Amino acid sequence: MKKDIITATLVAERVVTEDSDAARELYNQSRFGIIVDNKIHLSLIEALYLMEKERLLLQDGRGKAINYEAFLKKAQKLDPNFWVKYCVFRDIRNRGYIIKTALKFGADFRVYERGVKPGEDHAKWIVYPVHENSTLTWHDFSAKNRVAHSTKKRLMIGIVDEEGDVTYYECKWLRP
After folding, report:
1. How far apart are CA 69 and CA 35, in angstroms?
2. 27 is catalytic
């Protein structure tokens, strides 16, 4: 069965869908975005993922279509680490998990167990995407682990290589 293609508009650093049953169904089934005034507000990462899956047709404020490459370029100008974050987002979504932003937790993403939707239960992990060539000090690592521990979540580091493949490391805070 072919899924409906949803039309959306790029508004600053958000993507806003049309007010449609298809957009609400996408939210209800997969928890993409948040509902505001019967429209779904998507993050740039969610929008790019849906464009890649041919579920979203993106346009600018004048109704002119924005293609995948142009949109990716805009997103990377706003966030130089966008591609690394996107690789982790896409990989986790493709594995069947719901992944949402986690800014209030001091992380990039929070991830829910398969079958759990936000609001039904808490996220299990907070995720920090990093490129394989980037460095992380022990102080940085400890701070990330402390955030995970204090929010009662598991810490996951998603390391993205040059090909866009992701390797995950789950870390725990232990007291000897």
Report:
1. 27
2. no
CATH number of 6-78: 3.40.1170.20
In the annotation, is 153 catalytic? yes
Residue 112 annotated among the catalytic residues of the structure: yes
> Which residue out of 85, 112, 128, 144 is catalytically annotated?
112
Domain ranges of the chain: 6-78, 82-171
pTM score, whole prediction: 0.92
pLDDT in tens, 145-156: 888 888 899 999
The predicted-structure confidence for 91-107, as pLDDT tens digits, reads as follows 999 999 999 998 887 88
pLDDT (tens digit per residue) in 156-168:
999 999 999 999 9
Q: Which of left, alpha, beta for 154 (phi over 0: left; psi -120 to 50: alpha)?
A: beta
Please give the class, per CATH, of domain 82-171.
alpha beta
